[in-house]
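REVIEWER CHECKLIST
Item 1: Sequence provided? yes
Item 2: Single chain? yes
Item 3: Sequence as submitted:
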Amino acid sequence: MVRNESGGLSPKQEKSSTSKLVELVGIVIFALLLAFVIQLFLVKTYRIPSGSMEPTLDIGQRVLVNRVGMNFGDPSVGDIVVFHPPAGADVQPARCGAPDEGGSSARPCSVATPEESDQTFIKRVVGVGGDTIAIRDGRVIRNGRPTREPFINECGDGFGCSFPGTITVPDGSFYMMGDNRGASDDSRYWGPVPKDWLIGTTFATYWPPDRIGIF
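Item 4: Structure as written out by the authors:
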């Protein structure tokens, strides 16, 4: 190594060290900007906060959500979606846009309150616009036929397990239910979710390691 008479680095070496430092800082800034853009427009990560999606998703499990897909098509029945619920989900008991539906009535909620909640929920799509929906023993009756749902926790005879009255999902909206049918605050109580309130479709789980997988 060449040093000047005082024992320090030569001007050429000091310039080289400065350039490397600037390059490193630039790489770090670029990586942070790239991560920000990916989170903002492409893929977002979410932590499961409750047991409403058990046994499919456990509390604390982390998932990856595709945000791009919302711009090119609608989610399908069976997809797991992250979204903002209606503001009726912010109160207890939940508030349906139709006062005689949801809660202890015979019909699941068919009309959401017009305001969007700031909360973020994750549920499974069980019905899309135009579908008729009824709930019997926690299972969805879609368009008059029982839906095959091997992924759910049985509801039993508890509150919210049966809404035998039929409702129709409005066009451009999606009916959401948790897989843990006896312990999920979902569209049965606060109604369908408009597409504009959807954030993205869950496509993978990455934590904990023993639950890594693709949906």
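Item 5: Key structural point noted by reviewer: Confidence is low (pLDDT under 50) at residues 30-38.
Item 6: Recommendation: ____
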